[in-house]
Model the fold of this input.
Amino acid sequence: MSRKILGLDIRHDAVSAVVVKSGIKETDIEAHVHIPISNHIYMETVLAASLKTIVEKIDISGSVCVASFPANEISYRNIQVPFKGRKKIKKILPYELEPTVPFPIDDLIIDFYTLDLDDVANRHNLIAAAIEKSRLQAYLETLASFNIEPEIVTVGGYPAALCAANHLNIHENWLFVDIDTNQSTLFAILSRGICLIRSFPIRSDARSFEMESLCTNIWHTLYALEEIMGLDFKPEGVFITGCGLNNSGFDQDMEQNLGFPVKRTDFVRDTGIIKKHADSQLWNPQQMDNSFSLALMEIEGTNGLNFRKGPFAAKKFWEEHKNNLIKTGILAGVVLMLAFFNVVFDSYFMGKKLTVLNNQITDVFTSTFPDVKKIVDPLQQMRIKIQEARKNALLPGVTDNNIRAIDILNNISKLISKNIDVNFTRLVIGAENTVISGDTDTFNSVDGIKNGLEKSDVKSPI
Done:
C-alpha cells in the first residue's frame, strides 16, 4: 500500500514543499514547489500567502506532513546528565536547561536526543533543543488554516544533516552547513552522529563579507565544540545546501577559506531512492534538499528531534476520529442488538409452533391408539403401529405369507380367460385357502378356470 508524504520546509526567506509517493516497489516525487520570501517582518502573513500558493499548485490531500521551522528560532544546548533512561532525562532536563536559556522554562517545548559518545565520570552527553510555545503555536495555527496537520515538527536543516549522515559516503568527522540568505545552521557530525547544532547570522551585503562572516562563525563554532565536548575535532570535509547558494563559485570560495573540501549535496541523486520524478527539469537540489529530506525522514522512520509534544502533540487516530468512531460503534451496537432480538424472537415463536405440532401429533396418536398408555416418541410409535397394521390388513388371521386380498383378486382377473363367461356368486378369502363359487356355461369352462387359477404365484390353495 502506497503512502503520500508532504515534506514542508519553512524558512524566513523561502518555503519549499515536496510530495513524495512511497510504495512497496518504488518511491516517486509527484510534485514540488519553492516559494521565495522577501518580507521577513510579517512572517505569519507571508507564510499564509506561501501556503495558499502551495495548496493551489500541488495536491496535498491525503498526505502525511512532516514540517521543519526556522533553525534560528530554536535554542540548542549540549549538556551532560547522570542518567541514560529517557524518562529520567525528561524529568530533570527542564532543571538542567533553566539556567542556560533566556526564556522561562515553562514557555518552552523541549526535545532531546542522546549522543553516542564515550561517557565521562558516568555523565551522558545529549543535545537539547527548545522552541517557544507561542512561536510553535503560531506556526501550527497557520498550517491548520490550510488543513495541514504535521505529525512531526523539527529543526530546519536537521533532517538534511541526518540524510547526509545516513546515505552519503562521508569521513569520520565532517560538517553539514545549511545556508540561507541571512542565516546559516551548522551541524557537526562525529561517527555519523550529529554532536552539535548551532545557528548564526551571516552578512549578505557583499559576497566577500558573506563568506568571511560564514567561515568565521564556523571556526568559532568548532572552537566551542572542542571546549564543550573536550574533543580535538578536525573536520575532513563540509557538505553544504540551502537556498542561499545562488552563486556557482560559492563552494570553491568556501573551500579556499576553510582549508578542507566543500561539496554541495543532491539527495535525489546521491540516495538513489527516487525512481520517477514528475518535474526533474525544474528540480533545484539547493532549494529542495531540505523538504525532500523531511519526506525521507518519514519514509525511513528516522527518529529525531520532534516538537509535537505536550499540548502540541499530534492527535492520535482515536482522538482525531473519536466522534465518528463513537457514532459508528453505537450504530453497530443497535444493529447487533436488533439482530440478537430477532434471533431470540424467532427461536421463541418457532419453539411455540413446535410445541403445538408435537401436541397435535400426540393427540392424533392417542385418539388412534388409545390402548397405548406410555408415549415416548409418538411419531415413531405411530410408524411402528402402522407397519403392524399393514401386516394384518384384510386378513382375519396371521399368516407368514402376508398375502393381500387385492393380490388374489388381481391374479383371478388375469388368469381367467376373457372368452369364458363366468358369474361369481361367492368369494371367501381365508388364512388357509380361498373359496370361489359361481356359474358358467360348460364343464369345460369350469376346468379351464381351475387350471388357470392353479398357475397363480399366490401360494393359496384354490
In short: DSSP finds 13 helices and 16 strands in the chain. Residues 322-368 form the longest helix (47 residues). The chain has a mean pLDDT of 85. The CA atoms of residues 187 and 461 lie 125 Å apart.
